[in-house]
Amino acid sequence: MMPNHKQKSGSIIWLVLFWLYVALPLLWGVASTLKKALALFN
């Protein structure tokens, strides 16, 4: 990591986009798994 203050705000935006790209499919998978589990229990 180079101490470059000009790119700091841009890199934060990319970091947020990356985490959304990673977290949304995981949350989607967890939600669908929970729906399947609830359907099995009901």
Task: Record the SSE blueprint.
Elements: H1 8-41
What does this protein structure show overall?
This is Oxalate:formate antiporter. The chain crosses the membrane at residues 12-31. It comes from Methylomonas methanica (strain DSM 25384 / MC09). The chain has one helix spanning 8-41. It contains 1 helix and no strands. The mean pLDDT is 87. Helix content is 81%, strand content 0%. The chain has 42 residues and is mainly alpha-helical.
- So how many helices? 1
The biggest beta sheet is recorded as: none
Q: Whole-number radius of gyration?
A: 18 Å
Q: Using DSSP, what is the number of strands?
A: 0
What integer is the average pLDDT? 87
Residue share in helices?
Answer: over 70%
**SS-based class:** mainly alpha
Q: Low-confidence parts, pLDDT < 50 over ≥5 residues?
A: none
Hey, roughly how much beta strand do the residues contain?
under 5%
Q: Any idea what the shape is?
A: rod-shaped
Order of helices and strands: H
N/C terminus separation? 51 Å
Transmembrane segments: 12-31
Protein name: Oxalate:formate antiporter
Keywords: Membrane, Transmembrane, Transmembrane helix
